[in-house]
Amino acid sequence: STTFTDAAGGTWSATGDAAISTALTAGGDLLLDGSGDYVTRSISVDQFRLEADFSLRWSSWKSADGENSYDMVLSVDDGSGFNGWFVELTAYRGFFSYHHGAGGTLLAYNFNPNDSTWHNYEFRRVAGVLELLIDGVSVATALNSWPLTHSSTIAAIGSTVGGVYTFAGHIKNIVLEVTS
Fold this sequence. Notes:
Elements: E1 3-5, E2 11-15, E3 19-21, E4 29-33, E5 38-42, E6 54-61, E7 72-76, E8 85-90, E9 94-99, E10 104-109, E11 119-126, E12 129-134, E13 137-143, E14 154-157, E15 168-178
Antiparallel strand pairs: 1-2, 2-5, 3-4, 4-15, 5-14, 6-11, 6-15, 7-8, 7-14, 8-9, 9-10, 11-12, 12-13
């Protein structure tokens, strides 16, 4: 099994053919083919709990959706599909964020991310307002101050925790930060 270490020292375990690629970036990025490739990390239930303002930032390059057309960027769930939250990026729904138990859809923005171009994304909450920025431009907002909680012990990049809805493309520089 392949493992990756993040900037905070956390170890992420690869599933499928998840790998570091230098085909598009000299420093490398996470390459996922959308057919079962993803990485997971063990977490405590206190990690990835977003009860205040936060910022989730990443860059990605996509040319197609994965095999189930719900490509997860980041998922924090206990595997049941009912106890956590996720962020998705697909041609089917564009940007889509959801929290099980906190009113459902958090923020959605309909566009096609599969343009074979690197884009920088930021999904953040500031003073009860969720916002999506693409390449530094605000494209969607919604009021939401629900705490994003979960009962998970696993976080996944590129899939749901159970390995369904895998991401097709490249992801790099993913950062989740509590800002208040």
